[in-house]
Amino acid sequence: MHGLIKKALNGINSIVLGKDEQARLTLACLLAKGHLLLEDLPGMGKTTLSHTLAEVLGLQYNRIQFTSDLLPADILGVSIFDQNKSTFEFRAGPVFAQVILADEINRATPKAQSALLEAMEERQVTVDGVTRELPKPFFVIATQNPSTQMGTFPLPESQLDRFLMKVSLGYPDSAAERELILGVDRRSLLADLKPAMELDDLFRLQLLVKEVHLSDSIVDYIQRLVHFTRTSPGFAYGLSPRGTLALVRSSQAWAYVDGREHVVPEDVQQVLPSVAEHRLRGSADHTGHEGSSLVQRLLSEVDVVG
Predict the structure, then answer these.
(1) pLDDT digits over 168-207, tens only?
(2) DSSP assignment string, 104-155
(3) In this predicted model, what pLDDT tens digit does every residue of 248-289 receive, in sequence order?
(4) Domain 212-301 maps to which CATH number in 1.10.8.80, 3.20.20.450, 3.40.120.10, 1.10.1040.50?
(5) SS3 at position 91
(6) What's the fold here for domain 2-201?
(7) Measured in Å, how far apart are the chain's first and last C-alpha atoms?
(8) Global pTM?
């Protein structure tokens, strides 16, 4: 099964250049049955990464462009009266797909943003009192522009917490950017990308990730990290139990993607920024931009061995 992961990563890295770590985090997020938030400047390859992941895994993909006039029905679907049958017929919205790209999610109003909450948490949507299950797997990749840019509606903490990880792509290195300049358009290569695995293989991988071994010493280390966020000065609030479980699941997924069936401290440290930065806020921070520095405190001040 590790060979399938390597094949999938090779496929992603053949399209998205110079972003191996971000590709691993994205795949780990999916294998952990979470959702991913991509935050970066426009034009950094967020959409390309999302589409590439869906193609390399052979999953149905829908892109929803979030705008200020987007309505919940534009996401979930709507019931339309059929005069011939004298009944209401449900027309499913774009959320009914296996991989959803919620593009520029923070450009939509809170009402439209909240339409994804039930879908992300329960893997189902309720429209007109009827609950409908979403496809499996169901993976939301939301992109957002920095909150300092005009026309954005910041995601509330309750919705940020629904994302297992937050990842930034950043600028490409010189070699990758040169290939972008001199090579072919990366999206044109998607048509030739072959799925790296079958759907049953993906389900099997998700089950195997849950079985990755957590030793008592790793559990102790995770608990020390979480306790530090709840008791140390400078933190407005600590990681919630959901955040703790997110750190556990992400560490297991990263270990498996890295070819191991047990978690080591380096796995926890590798995923900690992606899991914790968007969940933490400094006690004197009114912008939500101090998550990175708080995570660095965790990495430097919490001992691996208790």
Answers:
(1) 998 888 888 888 888 777 777 888 889 999 999 999 999 9
(2) TGGGS-HHHHGGGHHHHHHSEEEETTEEEEPPSS-EEEEEE--TTSTT--PP
(3) 999 999 999 999 999 999 999 999 999 999 999 887 765 656
(4) 1.10.8.80
(5) strand
(6) Rossmann fold (3.40.50)
(7) 34
(8) 0.91
